[in-house]
Design a protein that fits this description.
- By secondary structure, this protein is an alpha/beta fold.
- The chain contains 12 helices and 17 strands.
- The protein has helices spanning 6-16, 61-71, 84-96, 108-126, 143-148, 173-179, 203-216, 267-270, 286-301, 304-325, 348-356, 379-395; strands at residues 28-32, 35-38, 43-46, 101-105, 130-134, 165-168, 184-189, 192-193, 199-200, 219-223, 247-250, 261-265, 329-335, 338-343, 359-360, 362-364, 368-371.
- A hairpin with a 3-residue loop joins β16 and β17.
- The longest helix has 22 residues, at 304-325.
- The protein is globular.
- The structure holds pyridoxal-5'-phosphate.
Length: 398
């Protein structure tokens, strides 16, 4: 590829790319493991790879090779026919989760749309239509997904939203009990609200939600777009809670950075997505599915679920020690390698300090610093990153 300076790249963006993102003034051109390089050749530690997509590290050789091989064989075939990688991927998903069946799409928001549509189809048969979602949640940017998202800022300018969705406070069982009635077809929730500030659902609450759904004949949809694929110390977040969902939405880490989304559902619910009800031209595309199969293989071969747990333990030990040292840290929370560090004040300055010093993290909800490292980041690199984060916290002198 031609070499461009940052200014040349930015000029193209300013002229030709819609400005809906707040972008930092850096263009990344290369990645390897938990390192990324910008267009001037500077190397960064990446503790927030691809907004949580690159769980096996940037450009893992096995994933790269699977994409290259499949690209030379067949990039795309539509769903009027069968394709080999889609079948293999569906089997991996089924074997690693609850033995259900999958539908493939291209993103998290689409996986949520599909889940909502599946629930409505099931609900039509059962005389139910309403979906209850959680306050503080985030489910993506399509109309159905923003309607389910429990944060008003994402609704602004888009009203009226999709009807038949209401919100209850996250973690409040009695509010859910009051809201769930004869019209309710599904409850939709994240087990760890990521964008919402890394809020971890209480195990007793989750078990009670599952029991309530069972008692009242309601489907439980889990949005595992961010918690799936080993992020929380298990293949899927629900496996930490001793329950199973009826429908599970996946994306982000499913393709190790390659765009792919999926919905896995119990067979008795999956059947409602019958021919003609739903489709996606690129869904289950052989190239995307090959990348995803390679991600499953890497996680298994390199024992990355276990590895992620070790990295998580080290990260939490270090961050909790820091929380004891610096008053500005209000709380360290999360599950596995989905970690939030809530500050007493705005986190923007720490975020910017880190970026200037070649560490990539994230800041959500104004004051929650967030890291979603690759499961195979080395402990040495993790600590190097956390050293920078610590000096950011000290420097900003909060
Ligand atoms: C929990 C959750 N659901 C859905 C989405 C939407 O995914 P996408 O951006 O791939 O549409 C996100 C994205 O951050 C997410 O974190």
């Amino acid at each position: 590829m031609l070499k461009f300076t940052f200014e040349q790249i930015k000029e193209k963006f300013d002229r030709c790319v819609i400005g809906n993102y707040t972008r930092n003034p850096i263009a990344f051109v290369h990645g390897e493991g938990s390192y990324i390089w910008d267009s001037s050749g500077n190397r960064y530690i990446d503790l927030m790879p691809g907004w949580g997509t690159t769980t096996v590290g940037h450009c893992h050789p096995h994933v790269v090779s699977a994409i290259q091989k499949q690209a030379g064989r067949l990039i795309h075939i539509d769903n009027s026919f069968y394709n080999v990688p889609q079948g293999i991927l569906a089997e991996h998903l089924s074997n690693r989760s609850f033995g259900g069946k999958s539908f493939f799409c291209n993103s998290g928001a689409e996986a949520i749309e599909t889940s909502l549509k599946m629930a409505r189809l099931w609900g039509e048969e059962h005389g139910r239509f309403e979906i209850i979602a959680m306050g503080g949640s985030f489910h993506g940017r399509t109309f159905g997904a923003i309607s389910a998202t429990g944060q008003e800022k994402y609704h602004r300018g888009y009203l009226p939203l999709l009807p038949g969705i209401r919100h209850v406070p996250f973690g409040d069982l009695s509010a859910l009990e009051d809201a769930a009635g004869a019209d309710t077809c599904a409850v939709l929730m994240e087990l760890v609200q990521g964008e919402g500030g890394v809020n971890v659902a209480d195990p007793e609450y989750v078990k009670s939600v599952r029991s309530l759904c069972d008692e009242k004949g309601i489907l439980l949809i889990l949005d595992e777009v961010q918690t799936g694929m080993g992020r929380t110390g298990e293949w899927f977040g629900y496996q930490n809670y001793g329950i199973e969902p009826d429908i599970m939405a996946l994306a982000k880490a499913l393709g190790g950075g390659f765009p792919i989304g999926a919905v896995a559902a119990k067979p008795e619910v999956a059947g409602f997505l019958a021919p003609g009800t739903h489709a996606a031209t690129f869904g289950g595309n052989p190239l995307a599915c090959s990348a995803s199969v390679a991600v499953f293989e890497v996680i298994e071969k390199e024992n990355l679920i276990e590895r992620g747990r070790e990295v998580s333990k080290a990260a939490f030990e270090r961050l909790r020690r820091m929380a004891g040292q610096y008053d500005v840290i209000r709380e360290v929370r999360g599950k596995g390698l989905m970690i939030g560090i809530e500050l007493e004040s705005d986190g923007r300055e720490v975020f910017e300090y880190c970026l200037r010093n070649r560490l990539r993290i994230n800041c959500t909800q104004g004051r929650v610093l967030r890291i979603l490292p690759a499961l195979n980041v080395s402990l040495e690199l993790l600590h190097e990153g956390l050293d920078l984060l610590e000096s950011g916290i000290k420097k900003v002198g909060l």
